[in-house]
């Protein structure tokens, strides 16, 4: 789908708390280019950006890998962690050994990155062969038919607050324990034709997103207050949650993401090698990345 380039830039926004530090102080109406915000779940934004219905978005890292030839990445923006992330959680009704030996895992379909991270962890690092099933993000319903359930985002957060006796595995923490690397769950991608056609608009939006992130990191209290009002929980929980997230995209995040793509390629979940490219106002340039070890 080729959109009329006279239309305003359309920005996809993930409706998860993990992106709030980037968006909380972002005010599209105050920008000269007057972009439009499109709110959706990660899988829907992945599709809309791929089909050209929107021009830029925070999308699943895996979705970027699948379509990297069509996109460039905005520098210094991501959803990453180096250790526990508290919102990418595998709930185990049965022992992990049973799950690995042909057990059934019900998976939310809202994020391609988390689904494929789970597969990499189960198959490459644990040597397991579970059966994967797609399901709506309802923990009790998922575990009626499965031995384990993968939840992400706010669904995972709310489920983790309720004590049900399940063992819970934080996939980001597992990735770090096995690799020692950052895990990047989402990146900010721009369609190449939009970057080429409207570089000034892209730059204005990019600078506003980075400024919003900077303000949030200077004082996270407004973001935490918003989480308390809309999601619930406690101030201490949200301080720990946002404290465990990172929204930069530097050398460490690129290195970890390159390793993630490498493993996905080895296991057959990705059919090509991925070259990570960042956008610059003068044009896209290859991002420096250390080779995976």
Automatic annotation (TrEMBL):
Record field: catalytic activity: chorismate = 3-[(1-carboxyvinyl)-oxy]benzoate + H2O
An example Gene Ontology molecular-function term: hydro-lyase activity
Protein keywords: Lyase, Menaquinone biosynthesis
One Gene Ontology biological process: menaquinone biosynthetic process
HAMAP family attached to this UniProt entry: MqnA (MF_00995)
PANTHER family documented for this protein: CHORISMATE DEHYDRATASE (PTHR37690:SF1)
Family (UniProt): Belongs to the MqnA/MqnD family. MqnA subfamily.
Name of the molecule in the record: Chorismate dehydratase
Species for this entry: Cohnella rhizosphaerae
Chain's gene name: mqnA
